[in-house]
Amino acid sequence: MNEFRPLVDKLDVSPEEKFDTYLLLLRSTDDKSLIAPAHDAAIAIVDEARRAQALLDIIKEIDYLSNPR
């Protein structure tokens, strides 16, 4: 995963796909440093409903990472 992370910004994909990629990496690694780029990708999503869902997903991940089980 470490070799893929720096390449995510180089992907020629939609903001939705970039967000989904960051979210997948965040969930699989619990690396808090991925929250900011995931947020950046989320706010670039044009569709308001999809953007709202993406931002909610980020909030859920922050909550999960802040409250280890």
Question: Which features does this protein show?
Answer:
69 residues, mainly alpha, flat
Overview of the molecule:
The protein is an all-alpha fold and 69 residues long. It has one domain (14-66). 62% of the residues lie in helices and 0% in strands. The protein is built from 3 helices and no strands. The longest helix is centred in the last third of the chain and has 19 residues, at 48-66. It is flat, with a radius of gyration of 12 Å. The relative contact order is 0.15.
Taken as a percent bin, the fraction of beta residues is under 5%
> Pairing-aware structural class of the strands and helices?
mainly alpha
pLDDT averaged over residues: 90
Question: What's the number of domains?
Answer: 1
- Quickly count the helices: 3
- Anisotropy-based shape: flat
Q: What radius of gyration results from the CA coordinates?
A: 12 Å
Provide the succession of SSEs.
Answer: HHH
Terminal Cα span? 24 Å
Low-confidence stretches: none
**What is the number of E strands?**
0
Which bin fits the share of residues in helices? 55-70%
Q: What's the story with the biggest beta sheet?
A: none
Brief overview, please?
This protein is mainly alpha-helical and 69 residues long. Helices cover 62% and strands 0% of the residues.
Topology:
Blueprint: H1 15-29, H2 35-43, H3 48-66
